[in-house]
Amino acid sequence: MKIRTKRVTLEVDEGKLSIDSVKFLITGFQGFGAVGQLASKYLTKTLHLIRIGYIIPSVIPDFTSLEDYGLTLPHEIFANNELKIITIVNHVNPSRRDLTDYTNVVVEFVKKLNTGHVLLIGGLDERFKEGDEKYRWLPTSKATLRLNAPLFMKGPYIVGPLASLLIAFELHSIPAITILPYTQPSRRVDPRAAAVAIEVISSLLGTEIPTHELIEYAEYLEKAEEEVRKMLSTQERSTRDKMYM
Fold it and tell me: What is the CATH number of domain 2-210?
C-alpha cells in the first residue's frame, strides 16, 4: 500500500498486514512530557507489534537509533494482527511544511483500514487539574466510546500535530478519542503520565499491559531531579555564605 501526497509518502508492506478491519489505530507526538510518543512506543514494544511500514517526510532527519527490528525511521507504522491494532510511532514531529500532507496520508490510511477508533495520546498541563482525576479526554462527534474521566475543558487550546489530526478526523467523520494525562510542562519526558495513558488503552483493549517499567523509569528520573535540586541548593547556600565572609 502506498499513499502519496506532494510532500509526504506513506508505505505499508501489505504482506505483513492480515487484518480486514482495525479495531484501534494509536499514535501521539512529542508534546508536553513527550507523553504521546513515549506511550505509543512503549505500547508497541510491550505488545510485540511488528513494523509494517513508515511515513517518509520531505526532509529526512539527521539522526536515528538502533532497535531490535533495525534502524528507527522518523514515522514508523506497527501492527499486531491478532489484537487488530496499529500504532504510528513518531520519533519526530512533522515539520510545519509537511504537517498538512502528513495529516492527509494518515486520514487516508485510517479510511483504507476501516478503523473502528483512532486513539490520540497527548499531555495536559497539570495546572488545569480540578480534582483527583488522572486525565481528561476529548472525542470527535462520531466517536462511540466513552471514558470514565472528565471531558477536556472549554477555553484552552490543543495545539500541534495532535490538534491537526483531531481536526481532520472530525472533518472526515472518523471516530477518534484524545487521551490527555496530566503532566508537568517543564518535564521533557513524563513516564508516569504515559503510564496513565497505557492504563486507559489497556482497559479499552481488554488486554493487561504492565506499566512497571514506566513507573521505574519515572522513579529514576524523579530521584535524579531531586539530587540535582539538592546540589543546586547546596551551591546556593555556599555562595550566600561566601558573600557575608
Answer: 3.40.50.10900
